[in-house]
Amino acid sequence: MGERLSGTQEVAGSSPASSTFAPPEPVRIGSNLIRDRLGDWCERAADGQEILVTRRGKALIGVLPATAPRADSWLQAALRINASHGHLSPAA
After folding, report:
1. Rounded distance between C-alpha atoms, residue 72 and residue 79, angstroms
2. Which CATH number applies to 23-84: 3.30.300, 3.10.20, 3.40.1620, 3.30.2420?
3. pTM of the entire structure?
């Protein structure tokens, strides 16, 4: 038989793990691809999918359902993506 552990176990993450909220990342699509199939992407946005339109890797615009109250999260996502590609420097 294996050795039994006693005492409190250390667990990484929050307590409980489901207590933290991270908004889902939007689908990234190039401007040429969205232009070619705009109707399909509009349907996906209407169904709740958030879309980030890019050009040459830079975030241009966000497409989200008209009822989505998360414009601030879009700004945060665009800044994070651009900063990860070296296009913007986060404020110090």
Report:
1. 11
2. 3.40.1620
3. 0.51
